[in-house]
């Protein structure tokens, strides 16, 4: 936590360093020298990614990290964080909610310049502001070991976005995962960040949720996504995208060739944007996970999205939770998946929808075509208690009970169903024999539960580990 009074030496033998205050923080590292036993020589930067002399600093890494951090804290006038001292040799350091402030962050940054252990750093909710983020990017110019960084909820604002963008536009870091949620980023910040991301190919995972991007931000993000060849995961949930911004965003997504996971939940798209989302699903061949929950998409929007599902061959997870879709819209979605023989859908989340027994019968037909699919809904309306118990009884317990009664192992039971007697079967073949066998009668939903336990996600089920599996 920031402290206005510099720390004083505890003994007369302790060296007191009183550096001349710099008029600017641009020279971050000259303010703190390592302990006297450490020789730190930095050559001029000439066509090299890093000027760290790792071989010469071997002794420093093992003996000088704590001392350097304590000296840095003394110089900037903050109390050292004991957790950081204890964990600075670990690969993961979590300093969330530590009240570091800009100066505390600067001390951490000084200590990390030469650190070769930390690969993931959490600094969420520390009020680091633009001064703190400037210290971090200066550190990243020297540190090529840090790969993941979380600086969410730190009041970075426009200037913080400018500092980050200027740095990443140069592609001069090993950071591939960056969390920037809740940093008061608005339209101008979106323009800066997207300019950097248009040329940066190293950032793979980016979290920009809980910011204030709207129509203009959507335009910038769409233009960036159309040409970006680095991002594989992007979180834009809890922003303010509406019709124009969301459509512009979707236009960029149609031709994107690297993004596999996208979270657009809680943005209020409405049915008008659903047409553009359907086009994304029809044309995009990379998206595997799409969350559009809480976007005011009704049955009309579900109909438009279903058009994309009829031809999409890559999507595996579609989350539509907290949208005003009822059973009619849900039927359109599952039938679209059924009509697509190349669909790879594994999860459709409509968990706020109350369905009927007729819907369940329709779903049975979908499962017959796509046994890997799992449709998550709220409940079955009017289903009797007896039928509910029948649907939900743990199938592995039923199979284990049968095996115990006949004094065989559960593996023996499954192998007996396989014509080849081997430990593996295709999901389609397994689903068929499990429905047809009468040793342990199971319904379609119970068979799907068994498949989920045994599926290797390669189209095959594997019995080999069943002896150690708990029912």
Keywords:
471 residues, alpha/beta, two-stranded antiparallel sheet, 18 helices, disordered N terminus
What does this structure look like?
- With 471 residues, the protein is an alpha/beta fold.
- It is built from 18 helices and 13 strands.
- It has helices at residues 58-63, 65-76, 82-87, 101-112, 129-140, 157-168, 187-197, 215-227, 243-254, 271-283, 299-309, 327-339, 357-369, 385-392, 395-405, 410-417, 427-436, 444-454, and strands at 92-94, 120-122, 148-150, 177-179, 205-207, 233-235, 261-263, 289-291, 317-319, 347-355, 374-380, 424-426, 460-462.
- An eleven-stranded parallel beta sheet has the order 1-2-3-4-5-6-7-8-9-10-11. A two-stranded antiparallel sheet has the order 12-13.
- The protein starts with 57 loop residues before the first helix and ends in a 9-residue tail after the last strand.
- The model is unreliable at 1-63 (pLDDT under 50).
Helix content percent band: 40-55%
Calculate Rg over CA atoms: 28 Å
The geometry reads as globular
Poorly predicted regions: 1-63
Strand arrangement within the widest β-sheet reads 1-2-3-4-5-6-7-8-9-10-11
Find the structural class using helix and strand composition: alpha/beta
Question: Mind sketching the topology for me?
Answer:
Elements lengths: L57 H6 L1 H12 L5 H6 L4 E3 L6 H12 L7 E3 L6 H12 L7 E3 L6 H12 L8 E3 L7 H11 L7 E3 L7 H13 L5 E3 L7 H12 L6 E3 L7 H13 L5 E3 L7 H11 L7 E3 L7 H13 L7 E9 L1 H13 L4 E7 L4 H8 L2 H11 L4 H8 L6 E3 H10 L7 H11 L5 E3 L9
Parallel strand pairs: 1-2, 2-3, 3-4, 4-5, 5-6, 6-7, 7-8, 8-9, 9-10, 10-11
Antiparallel strand pairs: 12-13
């Amino acid at each position: 936590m920031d402290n206005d009074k510099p720390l004083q030496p505890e003994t007369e033998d302790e060296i007191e360093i009183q550096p001349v205050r710099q008029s600017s923080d641009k020279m971050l590292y000259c303010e703190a020298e390592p302990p006297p036993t450490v020789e730190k020589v930095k050559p001029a930067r000439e066509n090299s990614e890093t000027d760290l002399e790792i071989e010469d600093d071997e002794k420093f890494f093992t003996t000088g990290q704590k001392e350097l951090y304590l000296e840095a804290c003394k110089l900037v006038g903050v109390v050292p964080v004991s957790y950081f001292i204890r964990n600075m040799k670990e690969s993961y350091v979590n300093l969330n909610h530590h009240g570091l402030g800009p100066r505390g962050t600067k001390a951490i940054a000084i200590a990390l310049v030469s650190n070769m252990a930390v690969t993931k750093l959490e600094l969420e909710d520390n009020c680091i502001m633009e001064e703190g983020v400037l210290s971090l990017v200066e550190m990243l110019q020297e540190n090529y070991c840090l790969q993941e960084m979380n600086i969410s909820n730190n009041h970075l604002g426009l200037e913080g976005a400018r500092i980050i963008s200027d740095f990443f536009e140069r592609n001069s870091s090993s950071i591939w995962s960056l969390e920037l949620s809740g940093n008061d980023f608005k339209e101008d910040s979106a323009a800066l960040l997207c300019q950097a991301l248009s040329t940066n190919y190293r950032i793979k995972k980016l979290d920009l949720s809980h910011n204030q991007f709207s129509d203009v931000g959507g335009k910038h993000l769409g233009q960036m996504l159309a040409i970006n060849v680095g991002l594989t995961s992007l979180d834009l949930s809890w922003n303010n995208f509406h019709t124009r911004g969301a459509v512009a965003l979707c236009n960029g997504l149609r031709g994107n060739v690297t993004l596999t996971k996208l979270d657009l939940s809680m943005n209020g798209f409405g049915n008008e944007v659903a047409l553009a989302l359907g086009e994304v699903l029809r044309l995009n061949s990379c998206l595997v996970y799409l969350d559009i929950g809480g976007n005011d998409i009704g049955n009309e929007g579900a109909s438009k999205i279903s058009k994309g599902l009829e031809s999409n061959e890559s999507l595996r997870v579609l989350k539509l939770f907290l949208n005003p879709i009822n059973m009619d819209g849900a039927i359109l979605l599952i039938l679209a998946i059924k009509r697509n023989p190349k669909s790879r859908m594994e999860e459709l989340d409509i968990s706020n929808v109350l369905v009927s027994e007729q819907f369940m019968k329709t779903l049975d037909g979908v499962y017959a075509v796509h046994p890997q699919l799992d449709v998550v809904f709220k409940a079955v309306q009017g289903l009797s208690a007896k039928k509910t118990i029948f649907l939900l009884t743990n199938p592995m317990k039923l199979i284990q009970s049968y095996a115990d009664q006949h004094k065989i192992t559960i593996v023996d039971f499954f192998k007996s169903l396989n014509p080849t007697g081997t430990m593996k079967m295709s999901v389609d073949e397994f689903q068929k024999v499990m429905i047809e066998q009468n040793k342990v009668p199971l319904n379609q939903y119970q068979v799907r539960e068994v498949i989920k336990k045994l599926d290797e996600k390669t189209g095959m089920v594997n019995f080999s580990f069943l002896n150690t599996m708990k029912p």
